[in-house]
């Protein structure tokens, strides 16, 4: 089997590789503050042919004697994604080599790939690391009981994933989670939505989780939120703040739904809006 070449960047002594889990689809009816026809027009203008497709990225970080995976994809939940394990193997990486999995948050398209179809943990040697508020939210029976019927399946998937790693689950409140990897609170999307700032050799990269789902829409229009956001107003505030920071610092960005290019910079356009410049 020939090795698959995946998008990779070096940040000092760290090597960050984007590993695709595939796609999911979400109707533009899930978006707030924009007409679906305008959303479709923005996608078309950006050259995107499958307008409602959302790419799912995971990121492998190697360095300092450690192999860390940030998020685990959907694992085929609702026919979403499911390509992570195969793409890791094609890239010459066996799941048993993963030392730790950092979660940006626990929506099913980020934790579904932690367990296989038989209910076994896909990453047998990995510590699972997540913000304590995120874990507490999904384990709260009150939240489960208050959830609409369509969302209750999400709780079951998340709980199965957390239970599968219960003997090696670590939660944090903030700060450095591993050497050179610092948690960045990104409130609004979920209770404990967290990005990770990677720093080494004076270089930086921010894995920003689910700041956007449709980058060609939500980067120029940060006021556009999606129904998956627990607090749409706060999510929009966080998105606007982060776009400003990323553009002013010329910060390299990696995002779970940033598209197949997987890495990019945020730039200010002539009309004062933001755009993403992908690193090909």
Automatic annotation (TrEMBL):
The entry's keywords: Hydrolase, Metal-binding, Zinc
Limits of the Metallo-beta-lactamase domain: 55-257
Keyword 4Fe-4S attributed:
no
An MF annotation (GO) of this entry: metal ion binding
Where, if anywhere, are coiled coils annotated? none
Q: Where are the transmembrane segments?
A: none
What is this protein identified as? MBL fold metallo-hydrolase
């Amino acid at each position: 089997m020939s090795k698959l070449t995946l998008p990779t960047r070096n940040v000092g002594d760290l090597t960050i590789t984007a590993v695709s889990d595939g796609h999911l689809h979400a109707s533009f009816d899930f978006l707030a503050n924009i007409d679906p026809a305008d959303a479709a027009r923005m996608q078309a203008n950006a050259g995107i042919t499958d307008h409602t497709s959302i790419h799912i990225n995971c990121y492998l970080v190697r360095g300092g004697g450690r192999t860390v995976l940030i998020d685990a994809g959907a694992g085929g939940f609702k026919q979403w994604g499911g390509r992570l394990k195969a793409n890791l193997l094609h890239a010459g990486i066996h799941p048993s080599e993963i030392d730790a999995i950092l979660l940006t948050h626990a929506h099913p398209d980020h934790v579904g790939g932690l367990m296989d179809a038989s209910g076994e943990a896909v990453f047998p040697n990995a510590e699972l690391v997540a913000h304590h508020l995120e874990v507490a939210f999904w384990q709260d029976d009150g939240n489960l009981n208050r959830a609409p019927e369509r969302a209750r399946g999400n709780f079951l998937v998340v709980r199965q994933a957390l239970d599968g790693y219960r003997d090696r689950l670590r939660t944090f409140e903030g700060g450095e989670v591993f050497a050179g990897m610092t948690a960045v609170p990104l409130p609004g999307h979920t209770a404990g939505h967290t990005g990770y700032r990677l720093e080494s050799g004076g270089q930086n990269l921010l894995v920003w989780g689910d700041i956007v789902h449709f980058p060609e829409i939500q980067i120029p229009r940060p006021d556009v939120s999606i129904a998956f956001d627990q607090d749409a107003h706060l999510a929009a505030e966080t998105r606007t703040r982060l776009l400003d920071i990323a553009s002013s610092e010329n910060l390299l960005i990696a995002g779970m739904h940033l598209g197949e290019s997987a890495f990019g910079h945020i730039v200010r356009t002539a009309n004062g809006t933001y755009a993403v410049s992908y690193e090909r």
